[in-house]
Each structure stands twice: as structure tokens, then as C-alpha cells.
């Protein structure tokens, strides 16, 4: 089983390669399918648009939200294709991490001029082993 940090490095590298090759301006769904394929080519299990149920107030709701990408059932990736990220995008990922009880997620925006400005780590009570 790969380390969570290793999964994150692979995902960021794949995202960077995609942004470098295709640039900004495509629909989020295009980046999603290509990133999922790139991660699968690296031997990772990837689920696209995975439905996530929500438990709230003692009730269960099947149609909570859909995770853009879930890698190895441990790393959430939320994709955007917008000119710039807003604070609400990071809060969205944090909420998803809390609902999934996952420690780390990546927010990747393919709409910016550079991939670096749109790639963000979001943590939920997580400290890497080497920290």
C-alpha cells in the first residue's frame, strides 16, 4: 500500500503534466477524465464522481455529494476550472474530508495561468509521518 504523501505527489505530478500539456480553458469534466486515466496508468485505483452519503441529525441521505476523484479510497481530489480559486473552494474540500473521515485532500484548479497557483493541499487533522 502506498503512503498517502506518495499518492499526493503522484496526483500533483499528473495534474502538473496535464496542465502543462493542455493548458487552461477546458471544462472541469475533461480534466477529470484525463487525470483519472493518468492516475490509473500509474497503477492507482481511482473512482470518478463517487456518490457520498451524508448522515445528519440521525438520518441518512444517499444523495449527499459526489467526490470528483477518490484515489485508493484515501485521497480526495476536487477539481475546478476557474480563473481563480476562492476561499469557499478550500472550505468545500475540508467539509468533504470531514464527511469522509479522510485526512488529506487536494484542490486542483486547471483554469489558472499556472498549475502551481491552483494546486492546494487541504488537511483534516493530518500530520505527515515525517513532520
Helix content: 25-40%
The stretches of 5 or more residues where confidence is low (pLDDT under 50) are none
List how many beta strands DSSP finds: 5
SS-based structural class?
A: alpha+beta
From the N-terminal CA to the C-terminal CA, the straight-line distance is 20 Å
Mean pLDDT level: 94
* Shape descriptor: globular
Number of helices: 3
For the structure shown, list the relevant keywords.
five-stranded mixed sheet, alpha+beta
Topology of helices and strands:
Layout: H1 4-22, H2 28-41, E1 46-56, E2 59-71, E3 75-80, H3 87-100, E4 104-109, E5 119-123
Parallel strand pairs: 3-4
Antiparallel strand pairs: 1-2, 2-3, 4-5
Helix pairs in contact: 1-2
Please give a structural write-up.
The chain is an alpha+beta fold and 131 residues long. The chain has one domain (4-123). The chain has three helices and five strands. It has helices spanning 4-22, 28-41, 87-100; strands spanning 46-56, 59-71, 75-80, 104-109, 119-123. The protein has a five-stranded mixed sheet, with helices on both faces. Helix 1 packs across helix 2. The longest helix is centred in the first third of the chain and has 19 residues, at 4-22. The chain is globular. The two termini are 20 Å apart.
Amino acid at each position: 500500500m502506498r503512503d498517502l504523501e506518495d499518492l499526493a505527489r503522484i496526483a500533483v505530478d499528473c495534474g502538473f503534466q496535464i496542465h502543462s500539456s493542455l493548458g487552461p480553458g477546458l471544462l472541469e469534466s475533461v480534466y477529470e477524465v484525463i487525470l483519472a486515466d493518468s492516475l490509473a496508468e500509474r497503477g492507482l485505483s481511482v473512482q470518478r464522481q463517487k456518490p457520498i452519503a451524508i448522515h445528519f441529525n440521525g438520518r441518512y441521505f444517499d444523495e449527499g455529494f459526489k467526490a470528483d476523484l477518490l484515489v485508493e479510497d484515501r485521497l480526495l481530489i476536487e477539481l475546478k476550472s476557474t480563473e481563480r480559486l476562492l476561499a469557499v473552494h478550500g472550505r468545500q474540500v475540508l467539509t468533504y474530508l470531514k464527511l469522509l473521515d479522510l485526512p488529506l485532500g487536494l484542490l486542483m484548479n486547471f483554469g489558472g495561468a499556472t498549475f502551481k497557483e491552483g494546486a492546494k493541499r487541504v488537511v483534516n487533522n493530518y500530520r505527515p509521518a515525517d513532520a
